[in-house]
TrEMBL record:
Function field: Catalyzes the phosphorylation of D-fructose 6-phosphate to fructose 1,6-bisphosphate by ATP, the first committing step of glycolysis.
UniProt protein name: ATP-dependent 6-phosphofructokinase
First-tier enzyme category under EC: transferase
Compartments where located: Cytoplasm
Species of provenance: Camelina sativa (False flax)
Enzyme Commission no: 2.7.1.11
Annotated ranges, domain Phosphofructokinase: 81-388
Residues the entry annotates as binding ATP: G88, R151, G152, G176, D177, G178, T179
UniProt binding sites for substrate: T205, V206, D207, M250, G251, R252, E306, Y364, M365, I366, R367
Names of the cofactor(s): Mg(2+)
Amino acid sequence: MATETATSIKKLPSLSGLHHRRNPLDENPFFHPSDGFYINPSDVILSQVAYDLSDQSQPRFAYHRAGPRQKIMYEPSAVKAAIVTCGGLCPGMNTVIRELVVGLWELYDVKEIYGIPAGYRGFYSMEAVKLNPKIVHDWHKKGGTVLATSRGGFNLNKIVDAIQLNGYNQVYIIGGDGTMRGAVEIFKEVSRRKLEVGITGIPKTVDNDVGIIDRSFGFQTAVEMAQQAISAAHVEAESAVNGIGLVKLMGRSTGHIALHATLSSRDVDCCLIPEMDFYLEGKGGLFEFLEKRLKERGHAVLVVAEGAGQDMIPRNESQKQERDESGNLVFLDVGAWFKSVLKEWWEREHPDELFTVKYIDPTYMIRAVPANATDNLYCTLLAHSAIHGVMAGYTGFVSGPINGNYAYIPLEEVAQAKNEVNTNDHKWAWVRSVTTQPDFETKF
C-alpha cells in the first residue's frame, strides 16, 4: 500500500522584536469573536486541491491561512502605516487603498496612516498624505489611484532611508510583478538593517499574470469592459461588406483577458495570445481562415493580445533597444500592424472587392474604470487579509486567494511566479471550439 506524501508548509518571515498582545477585535463592537473566529497557526491552505493519488511522488505544499489572529504583535497606537501604489492603472486600486485605511482605523484603531504619492519615488521625493476614513470614503467609486502612481523611480537605499526616517513600521505596497520584485528588495534591506517594519504586497495586474494566487484584482472588471469593445467590433464588422472587427486587448506576456473575453462574448472568430505562435500566409494560416470566414458569414471578429506577434512586426535598431521606465521592451502596436497587413493582403488577393477593418483599442478605457461589484468585494478581502497578517507580526508576504481560500504567500515566491495561459489545457481547447480557429501549432 502506498504511503501518503507529507505536506510541506511554506514558512513565513515574522518580526521577532515585538511582543504579543490581545487582539483589539475582542473589544470591537462590530465583531463577536467566538470559536473558529481567529485563525490558528496550524490552519493552512493547500496549494493544490486536485491530485493524482497514484503518483505519490508529487510534492504537496500548503500556505498559512489568512485572517485575524488571537494575539497581535503591534500596539495599535504605535503603528505608523504607509500605503503606496506603483506601476500602471488597474480597476480597484482606490478600493484597496480605501479598505486598508478603513480596516486599519476601524478594526485595529490605527490612526497614523499615510499615502505615498507617485509610486516608489514618492517615498523620497514627495510629501506623504495623511489619510483617514472620511477622506477615502468614496474612493472606491473612482477609477485610477487618487494617490497617483508612476513607473520606475526605485532607489532602494533612498526608499528604506525614508521609511526609517519617517518612522513607518507597516508598509503596504500595491503593484504588479515588477513592483513585487521591488518589494522583495525593500523587505530584504529592512531585514538587513534589523528594522521592525512589516512589509506586505498586494498584487495588482490587470493582465492577471501574477502566479500562485487565483487571480489579480481588476481582472474581472477588465474582462467585462473588454466584452463591450468586442461587441462594438462585432457590430462594425457585421454592418460592413467583408468587414473585420479588430480588437487589441491588454496582455504583454499573458493572454488571460483576451481568452476570457473571447469565451464570454461568443462573437470572436479568432483569438491570438502571446503564449501561442501563429502565421499569416499559406495553408492553415490566419489569412486562409479569415477568407473562409468572410465567405461564409460576410464578417469576422479578431481579438489580439498586445504581446502577441511582437516578433513578426518589423523593428528598426532603435525600436529593438527601446525600454520603458520599468525596463520592459517597448511593444509596437500589434493592432495597427494587423490592420495594415490585413488591408495589404486583401488588396493583393481581392483588388476589386470591398473590405473594411475597424480597429478598436480600449486599453486606457479598461484600465481607468472603477472596479465592478465582484472586484470591489475582492479588494476588500485582500486589504483586510493583509492588515490581519501584518498586525500578527508577519512580514515579507502577499495575501491572496488560493483555490478560493485566502492565504499568506512568501513575497519572493509571488515575485518570481508567472501565470501564463496553458495552451494545452481544457480552457484553450474551449476557445478553439468556440472560435473554430486554426491550430497554428501544427506548422511549428
